[in-house]
Amino acid sequence: MVTQTWLYDVILYIYALSLLFYFSDFVGPNRSAKRMGTGLLSFVWVLQTAYLIYSLVTHGKLSAFSMFETLFILSWLLVTVSLIVNRFFRIELFVFLVNVFGFATFALNVFSRPGLAPTLAHWNINDELLFIHITLAISGYAAFVVSAIFSGMYLFLHRKLKEKQWSQQMLRLPSLENTDRYAFVSVVIGAPLLLLTLSLGIVWIALEGDFMLFFDPKVLNSWFVLLAYIFYLFQRLVMKAAGNRLALWNLAAFVITLLNFLLANQYSNFHQWY
């Protein structure tokens, strides 16, 4: 049975998509990405504003607001501030990080609300949070797989060109420049998705109340994965590293991702895949 939580789910997914566009604009100025991110975040703001107005009309006075709605206002204020900063200043990283916090705050507010029914009748409310967490994680890992494949193609092409070994297969592959760019774009998609996944994981642990899970092998290794890809971006954007070095590090980061996925699950207290 579909209940009111579907609206909160839609807001979370739109929120996450807007942050992908903002992060893309941060790593490489992109006017189209910034417009899309601003448009989606503005839509989130409109939905949140509509809910606040509805709550105000329903309760009649601010003193009747619950803790949920009070913290909802905090999330709304963070979106509002970020939109103002985005309009008058070029501080994309500030806008992105503020909204990562706002995203987690909004999720915590929604899924900690007493009496809130999940979208599917056979779920509990934490199952719905876990579903969003998993879909973002899978999307991020898919982006990392694509990036690793392009990095492997880059190293193959680079070696063939360096050794002047021409073949018919090489003509069917993208150029070195495009292969490197496709790998980079995939990381730009995967890294913020992983960060949002981790933020929802923190919310889930907070709701469970078992704070020792913060030291779970899967959680700790996921932070190492994120740091590995952040270092890849740092090498490309700040250090201007050569393409073959970037490709090697990207593949190393993917190996860390695989180890995290395959090995950490065996010792995790709550990430059991098999």
UniProtKB/TrEMBL annotation:
Keywords: Membrane, Transmembrane, Transmembrane helix. The chain crosses the membrane at residues 6-24, 36-57, 63-86, 93-111, 131-157, 182-207, 219-234, 246-264. InterPro entries: Cyt_c_assembly, YpjD/HemX. It comes from the Bacteria. Residues 67-267 form the Cytochrome c assembly protein domain. This is Cytochrome c biogenesis protein CcsA. It comes from Paenibacillus ehimensis.
